[in-house]
Write a sequence for this structure.
């Protein structure tokens, strides 16, 4: 089992920045990919950014150039999402996610990000 704890959500005006953090605990040696998803009211959950154990990253087109996913080092199980130039359409509940080499998936409890115009 893996537990994910998120922090850093909040409210900000358009153009502002927020930084989300997610810390994994439990059976973490099996973690392969960590990432962030978001779900806006009335919409499906979508992938925002992912980072592999080796450090390879992937971003949704809508956040490229504005968001950066990172972790402290190759073995770290704390992942960050730096969100700059925020737009009202970025408003959503952001969920930390991880998948393991054994193909298990785990989710955090979610953190609200609200961007006002």
């Amino acid at each position: 089992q893996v537990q994910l704890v998120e922090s850093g959500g909040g409210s900000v005006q358009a153009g502002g920045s927020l930084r989300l953090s997610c810390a994994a605990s439990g059976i973490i040696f099996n973690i392969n990919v960590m990432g962030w998803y978001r779900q806006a009211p009335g919409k499906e959950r979508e992938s925002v950014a992912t980072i592999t154990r080796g450090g390879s990253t992937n971003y949704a087109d809508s956040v490229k150039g504005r968001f950066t996913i990172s972790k402290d080092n190759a073995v770290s199980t704390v992942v960050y999402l730096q969100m700059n130039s925020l737009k009202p359409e970025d408003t959503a509940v952001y969920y930390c996610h991880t998948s393991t080499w054994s193909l298990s998936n785990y989710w955090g409890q979610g953190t609200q990000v609200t961007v006002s115009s």
